[in-house]
From TrEMBL:
Residues 45-174 form the Alcohol dehydrogenase-like N-terminal domain. It comes from Ambrosia artemisiifolia (Common ragweed). PROSITE patterns: ADH_ZINC (PS00059). This is Alcohol dehydrogenase-like 6. Its cofactor is Zn(2+). Residues 217-348 form the Alcohol dehydrogenase-like C-terminal domain. Keywords: Metal-binding, NAD, Oxidoreductase, Zinc. Homodimer. Belongs to the zinc-containing alcohol dehydrogenase family. Class-III subfamily. The keyword Iron-sulfur does not apply.
């Protein structure tokens, strides 16, 4: 597949009208996706309609798909890590025109609220932050329908559809030199890991780092720490096959908890003369957050949690871990202000300064999207890139 070969000539010639296209629809928690014909409404003011080019499966898609959260948000179209081409724009949108190449953003940036105008205090926009209700930010309704019945969105993106509608603040224009079937990973997982190392933890040269979970996010943390000059990067994972892959991203030591006589935190403390300078929880296991804290050194140890928990969302830790100087920080999208900062990551990718392609372990056609879910659940992939059929 050509990396970014697509043109406006392949668009559905229906600007401003309803588009009928294929989408992978989840009808219930854990149920296989069904490829359905959906109607995609035209963009309202401040919105874009995007022809999705490539979309990769993120662990958080799987977590939400398996969730029995109440009220149930089904039928639903998942997917949020995607690249595409603008098909049409709503009233008042001047930043984008038809044919622009874009990445979708699961958290947006309005550029004007108190949070957006803050320098580095936060990247969570007050207007376009994480959307959890399965609707559009604009008017709290959906743009997807099947035979007139509404279908819920996911993370204000829903990229498992040949066309989708997003708020203009939830997309960023990128260089047309960037291969759309690769850089889609920068709209979530890879950027999240790099940012956790650079923006949230601010890893320093010569420091020691422990990373719990060596999936796409964990490996991206590792390369971020390597680029910053960390002297020792310890990767923790129960899958021994991750060992060799991790070395390419900067991991110097690999620990499999299933092969230890003591605890992980005891081993890391022994390896690092009392604890790592930084630790990162990239699994989505709140009990592992405590382990990561215990693996940090007294005085200045920083633990960053990135994973989305599948169960037990509450974090518990003995106060002594914090009163002795450790810091626990949360990270959403690595602290990047998405519209402001992502173009610089694209530039780094085009200059071969960051690794993205090596995180793609599978390329699948849209019709095989359930295979991507099976591979992710079985722990047999890093990122599956799904190539749309239109």
């Amino acid at each position: 597949m050509s990396s970014s070969s697509s043109s406006s000539s392949s668009f559905v010639k229906n600007p401003g009208g309803i588009i009928k296209c294929k989408a992978a629809v989840a009808w219930g928690a854990g149920e296989a996706m069904r490829i359905e014909e959906v109607e995609v409404s035209p963009p309202l003011p401040s919105e874009l309609r995007i022809k999705v080019f490539s979309t990769s499966l993120c662990r958080s898609d799987v977590t939400a798909w398996l969730s029995n959260a109440q009220p149930p948000l089904f039928p639903r179209i998942f997917g949020h890590e995607a690249s595409g081409i603008v098909e049409s724009v709503g009233e008042g949108v001047t930043e984008f025109v038809q044919g622009d190449h874009v990445l979708t953003l699961f958290i947006g940036e309005c550029m004007s609220c108190k949070h957006c105008v803050s320098t580095k205090k936060t990247n969570i926009c007050q207007q376009l932050g994480l959307e959890r209700k399965g609707v559009m930010h604009t008017d709290q309704t959906t743009r997807f329908f099947i035979k007139g019945k509404p279908v819920f969105h996911y993370c204000a993106v829903s990229s498992f559809s040949e066309y989708t509608v997003v708020h203009s603040g939830c997309a960023v224009k990128i260089s047309k030199d960037a291969p759309l079937d690769k850089v889609c990973l920068l709209s979530c997982g890879t950027a999240a890991g790099l940012g956790a190392a650079w923006n949230v933890a601010d890893v320093s040269k010569g420091s020691t780092v422990a990373i719990f979970g060596l999936g796409t996010v964990g490996l991206s943390v590792a390369q971020g720490a390597k680029i910053r000059g960390a002297s020792r990067i310890i990767g923790v994972d129960t899958n021994p096959e991750k060992n060799e892959k991790a070395k390419a991203f900067g991991v110097t030591d690999f620990i499999n908890p299933n092969e230890l006589e003591g605890t992980v935190q005891q081993v890391i403390k022994q390896m690092t003369d009392g604890g790592a300078d930084y630790s990162f929880e990239c699994i989505g296991d709140t009990e592992m957050v405590t382990t990561a804290l215990q693996s940090c050194c007294d005085g200045w140890g920083v633990t960053v949690t990135l994973g989305v928990p599948k169960t037990k969302p509450e974090v518990t830790a003995h106060y002594g871990l914090l009163i002795t100087g450790r810091t626990l920080r949360g990270s959403l999208f690595g602290g990047w202000k998405p519209k402001s900062d992502l173009p610089s990551l694209i530039d780094m990718y085009l200059k071969d300064e960051i690794m993205v392609d090596d995180l793609i372990t599978h390329n699948l056609p849209f019709e095989d999207i359930n295979t991507a879910f099976d591979l992710m659940v079985a722990g047999k992939c890093l990122r599956c890139v799904i190539h749309m059929s239109n």
